[in-house]
């Protein structure tokens, strides 16, 4: 196994991988909050896709928007050879720490450049993942470009996994994220969050020249120990960045906490039920 992490410009798809915008205040802490609080919420999505594809020895996986590397770590634990690309240098550093926890830093290569730098030797990838949910008005064009480029590094017929929010009525967090949408106005079209359409993933696959080959739904509840963790976790997603550009951080945090209040239990924990969707597509 030889994990490769590459810094690369990726579209903003509702997480903190974008076209290198200015780092928000407290970026290192936000990165830690993502890795320690929020990222684990998507583990059921990662595992469901890996189970369906039989990810394991013989899998050569490329993770687009790999963030701090939890999805890569889970694939590597199954015996896969993994590579990851992301625009966020601080998240990549955490990914490198995770993937070299066994004390073998020579197993990780961090380079700058395009997607081609993620390729290892002559072996093409046979699985590509873009797990972080499509949920940003401006994300589709950039993500299409990245998927098209990544497909060119994969074997014909390779699996491409796209992740997205499930139906709004089955995602409790959708109501909370509308705070980000409302506060971001008039910058709403430049980022933030929007509800997913029923065919978003299929339309994205079609734009990228991919062939749909099945889909599934996965329960991904968002659970936090307390209100402070919930606010920090959701702010770490980057979905509130546009709101923070035009609204005082304290006001954003206050309105976010108010929106979360209905989901706080008597013991102080915050729990929101969500359903996520994934699409398996194939390179042509």
From TrEMBL:
Residues 1-29 are annotated as: Disordered. One of its GO terms (biological process) is methylation. Pfam families: Methyltransf_25. InterPro entries: Methyltransf_25, SAM-dependent_MTases_sf. Keywords: Methyltransferase, Transferase. GO terms for molecular function: methyltransferase activity. Residues 62-136 form the Methyltransferase domain. The keyword ATP-binding does not apply. This is Methyltransferase domain-containing protein. It comes from Streptomyces sirii.
């Amino acid at each position: 196994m030889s994990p490769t992490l590459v810094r690369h410009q990726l579209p903003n798809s509702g997480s903190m991988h974008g076209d290198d915008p200015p780092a928000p205040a407290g970026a290192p802490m936000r990165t830690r909050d993502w890795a320690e609080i929020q990222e684990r919420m998507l583990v059921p999505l990662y595992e469901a896709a890996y189970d369906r594809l039989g990810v394991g020895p013989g899998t050569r996986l490329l993770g687009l928007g790999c963030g701090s590397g939890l999805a890569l770590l889970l694939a590597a634990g199954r015996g896969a050879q993994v590579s990851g690309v992301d625009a966020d240098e601080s998240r990549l550093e955490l990914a490198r720490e995770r993937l070299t926890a066994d004390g073998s830093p020579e197993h990780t290569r961090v380079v700058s450049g395009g997607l081609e730098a993620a390729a290892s030797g002559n072996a093409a990838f046979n699985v590509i993942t873009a797990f972080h949910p499509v949920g940003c008005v401006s994300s589709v064009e950039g993500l299409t470009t990245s998927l098209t480029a990544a497909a060119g590094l994969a074997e014909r017929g390779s699996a491409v996994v796209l992740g997205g929010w499930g139906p709004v009525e089955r995602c409790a967090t959708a109501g909370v994220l509308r705070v980000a949408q409302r506060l971001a106005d008039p910058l709403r079209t430049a980022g933030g969050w929007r509800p997913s359409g029923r065919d978003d993933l299929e339309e994205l696959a079609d734009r990228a020249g991919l062939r749909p080959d099945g889909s599934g739904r996965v329960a991904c509840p968002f659970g936090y120990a307390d209100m402070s963790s919930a606010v920090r976790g959701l702010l770490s997603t980057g979905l509130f960045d546009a709101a923070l550009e035009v609204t005082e951080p304290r006001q954003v945090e206050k309105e976010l906490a108010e929106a979360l209040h209905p989901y706080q239990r008597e013991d102080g924990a915050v729990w929101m039920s969500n359903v996520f969707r994934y699409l398996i597509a194939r390179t042509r």
